[in-house]
DNA sequence: AAGGAGATCAACCGCCGTATT
DNA sequence: AAATACGGCGGTTGATCTCCT
């Protein structure tokens, strides 16, 4: 029944910090053979480690495509924005920062960004300005329920988006299997992504040059998935009597605002969309507006420098997951709710 | 210079979804 | 269909580093 026993049950395996010799062995083995099955790798590579430990060391430290060192302002902004959308889904966030590991992002969030937001008076969990208990009571329970509805609203959109992302990744994987990479790709063979989307995408689509048709098809599939998934969610919840499409556009706007604010020259649009969002949430969301404006300010402070590949990647993903209706609505007049 | 406190980050742990038998 | 392993993820820990007194 089942598979053979797990390596972690073997005794005498080493734990703790890796030595340079161990790193060298692991690196040499993977460069020559690829990681293959992690469980059997330590034995083949002559390491007294469990496969899990090897995988972790590789994905978080030894992988050649890892960018180390300080996070840039833009990376910080991306993390904050994505965390507002995704919460503690570090691997999902890491797909938008391809050269950073989820572990690194998680550490950076916990040691830097969380504290910084807290200092700014922003709850790092909800990304809403902290309101003391009295003010909250004075604001009334209605505001709280609207806030809850707002969060749920966002969560539904995100759930649909993640579903599309997963589908995209699966398709990419299938295509990769159908057409294996050339043997000359020495390091692509050892590419061991912790996350699915960006790596498989980059491997397959080669920075957008190799197979634009496939990319386009995948994007269309993703968009369709979001549309259908979120459309169902909207119909199910009858958002304020609006049509599913309109509601979807509104929900998409929020995510669009969060992500699209990275676009060079998008300051104005961002401000408009922030306005649209605050209109959507009326009243109690003055605080939200303030928060998103603060993010805008952070973005603006770095926007003077030219756009990077990083931001353009985020934009690409935004476009990928923002259906046409939402994108159109977001760039036109604010949606009335 | 010494040592205590806080910050940082690599690595581990345990859980979960998926694949395999 | 059930049992089990695998791979991946997020939370947490602990060793090390840095700063302050």
From TrEMBL:
<dbReference type="GO" id="GO:0000976">
    <property type="term" value="F:transcription cis-regulatory region binding"/>
</dbReference>
<dbReference type="Pfam" id="PF00249">
    <property type="entry name" value="Myb_DNA-binding"/>
</dbReference>
<dbReference type="InterPro" id="IPR017930">
    <property type="entry name" value="Myb_dom"/>
</dbReference>
<keyword id="KW-0539">Nucleus</keyword>
<feature type="domain" description="Myb-like">
    <location>
        <begin position="10"/>
        <end position="62"/>
    </location>
</feature>
<dbReference type="InterPro" id="IPR001005">
    <property type="entry name" value="SANT/Myb"/>
</dbReference>
<feature type="domain" description="HTH myb-type">
    <location>
        <begin position="63"/>
        <end position="117"/>
    </location>
</feature>
<dbReference type="GO" id="GO:0080090">
    <property type="term" value="P:regulation of primary metabolic process"/>
</dbReference>
<protein>
    <submittedName>
        <fullName>Uncharacterized protein</fullName>
    </submittedName>
</protein>
<keyword id="KW-0805">Transcription regulation</keyword>
<dbReference type="InterPro" id="IPR015495">
    <property type="entry name" value="Myb_TF_plants"/>
</dbReference>
<keyword id="KW-0677">Repeat</keyword>
<dbReference type="InterPro" id="IPR009057">
    <property type="entry name" value="Homeodomain-like_sf"/>
</dbReference>
<dbReference type="GO" id="GO:0005634">
    <property type="term" value="C:nucleus"/>
</dbReference>
<dbReference type="GO" id="GO:0051707">
    <property type="term" value="P:response to other organism"/>
</dbReference>
<keyword id="KW-0804">Transcription</keyword>
<feature type="domain" description="Myb-like">
    <location>
        <begin position="63"/>
        <end position="113"/>
    </location>
</feature>
<feature type="domain" description="HTH myb-type">
    <location>
        <begin position="10"/>
        <end position="62"/>
    </location>
</feature>
<keyword id="KW-0238">DNA-binding</keyword>
């Amino acid at each position: 029944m089942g598979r053979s026993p797990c390596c972690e049950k073997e005794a005498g395996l080493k734990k703790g910090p890796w030595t340079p010799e161990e790193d060298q062995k692991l690196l040499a083995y993977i460069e020559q053979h690829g990681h293959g099955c992690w469980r059997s790798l330590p034995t083949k590579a002559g390491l007294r480690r469990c496969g899990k430990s090897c995988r972790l060391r590789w994905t978080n430290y030894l992988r050649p495509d890892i960018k180390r060192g300080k996070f840039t302002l833009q990376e910080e902004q991306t993390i904050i924005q994505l965390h507002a959308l995704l919460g503690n889904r570090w691997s999902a966030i890491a797909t938008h920062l391809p050269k950073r590991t989820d572990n690194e992002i998680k550490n950076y969030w916990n040691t830097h960004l969380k504290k910084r937001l807290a200092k700014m008076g922003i709850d790092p969990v909800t990304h809403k300005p902290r309101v003391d208990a009295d003010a909250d009571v004075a604001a009334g329970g209605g505001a709280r329920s609207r806030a809850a509805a707002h969060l749920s609203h966002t969560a539904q959109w995100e759930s649909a988006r993640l579903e599309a992302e997963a589908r995209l990744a699966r398709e990419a994987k299938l295509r990769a299997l159908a057409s294996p990479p050339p043997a000359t790709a020495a390091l692509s063979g050892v590419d061991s992504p912790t996350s699915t989307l960006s790596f498989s995408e980059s491997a397959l689509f080669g920075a957008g040059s190799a197979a634009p048709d496939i990319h386009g098809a995948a994007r269309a599939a993703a968009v369709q998935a979001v549309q259908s998934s979120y459309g169902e969610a909207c119909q199910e919840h009858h958002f304020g009597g609006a049509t599913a499409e309109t509601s979807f556009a509104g929900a998409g706007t929020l995510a669009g605002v969060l992500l699209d604010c990275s676009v060079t020259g998008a300051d104005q649009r961002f401000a408009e969309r922030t306005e649209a969002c605050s209109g959507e949430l009326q009243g109690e969301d003055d605080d939200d507006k303030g928060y998103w404006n603060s993010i805008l300010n952070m973005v603006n402070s770095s926007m003077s420098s030219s756009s990077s590949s990083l931001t353009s990647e985020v934009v690409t993903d935004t476009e990928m997951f923002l259906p046409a209706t939402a994108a159109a609505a977001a760039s036109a007049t604010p949606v009335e709710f």
